Amino acid sequence: MEKEVGAGHKGSFTAKVLSNQQIRECYYRLNLKLDPIGSRLFETAKPGRFVEIDLAGLPLPPEDKIPPALRDAAYRQILLRRPFSFSDVIFVPGQNGPCVKLEILYCILGPATLRMMTLAGGDTLNLIGPLGNGFALPDTLKKAVLIAGGMGAPPLLHLGGYLKRHRPEVETICFAGAKSCEDLPFTLKIGNLTGLVLEEFDVLGIPSLVATDDGSAGFRGFVTDCARRWLRDNQPNPGETLVYACGPEPMLAEAARLAKEFDLPCQVSMERMMACGIGLCQSCAVEIKTDSPGQTEYKLCCKDGPVFDSRNVIFNL
Ligand SMILES: Cc1cc2nc3c(=O)[nH]c(=O)nc-3n(C[C@H](O)[C@H](O)[C@H](O)COP(=O)(O)OP(=O)(O)OC[C@H]3O[C@@H](n4cnc5c(N)ncnc54)[C@H](O)[C@@H]3O)c2cc1C
Ligand code: FES
Q1: Rounded to whole angstroms, how far apart are CA atoms 280 and 278?
Q2: Fold held by 11-131
Q3: Which of 27, 51, 53, 82 is the pocket-test mutation for ligand 1 (most atoms within 8 Å of CB)?
Q4: What is the average per-residue pLDDT within 143-159?
Q5: Where are the domains of the chain?
Q6: Would you say 115 and 81 are in contact if contact means Cβ atoms under 8 Å apart?
Q7: What CATH number does the domain located at 143-270 have?
Q8: Which among 25, 26, 140, 208 could bridge 108 via Cys, Cβ 3.0 to 4.6 Å?
Q9: Which atom number of ligand 1 is nearest to the Cα of residue 269?
């Protein structure tokens, strides 16, 4: 297994907002430049880890920018930090060591993400991170099959970019699914051979296939069924292939079933509501099988996860 130098090191630091760009009706791309402490902490952070952001002091956007469905929730106080993965970590060389830029893709869901809409270049945020364990990248890995559902996509985009930069020998393919094409946090474009592809993966040289439940783009149906078709046609070698999945829990459960069907190991990135993000409050339990048959125990999504071996997870369905 690849060893992460400095794994487990985390801290509190600030980040300057470079840009906060709307990419779809409810999706934004936030670019942050970390201070020297954050930059050092992120030097070795691998994909699948996350940060907790303090958003309590931000103002609400103007009333006409608040989606009607969120008008009541908008005024709820934000006491707790909110967890976000990153879709890219960029190192910019500098005289006193590299400066790190983080890219976060976020979806407007409630009071905290609504307030994130107001972030503008020059604003400062306080972050804690990098948190969690991240995806395993075994030395034997030759083929990575990424399966993203809805907003599960950001850490898989980071993983794709990371593999291209650090493990170029690994062949990577991405399957991204959503209810409808409007719910995909990516830019769709026509690929050379395969029909619709995702621009963000295309620029990395990673082939991608799109699935939508309503058939508005790409394969009509679940993203896991799209991946199943590809696995049947390509029969990747179980000894050197890993499935990485991130998205809603039912999709993760289906990705786990799919991987089992093809005898492939699978890493699932789980989501839980997180109060502290650092293993103190016990609010983010995930039920995991132990080595004793029929026995389970609870692990913490923020500290032991968010990435788990799918064979061990008892999914909440
Ligand atoms: C490890 C991790 C990484 C994440 N990465 C991203 C990311 O890259 N981009 C992104 O947009 N979001 C990400 N999230 C989710 C993000 O933290 C929530 O969308 C955010 O906290 C919502 O805050 P809010 O106050 O706007 O809405 P809230 O009022 O807190 O939430 C609105 C509704 O969204 C659902 N929800 C919110 N958070 C979670 C959760 N953790 N698990 C299950 N359901 C939830 C609930 O139904 C809730 O009622 C991540 C969550 C985790 C745990
Ligand atoms: S969020 Fe507090 S223990 Fe995980």
Answers
A1: 6
A2: Elongation Factor Tu (Ef-tu); domain 3 (2.40.30)
A3: 82
A4: 94
A5: 11-131, 143-270
A6: no
A7: 3.40.50.80
A8: 26
A9: 1
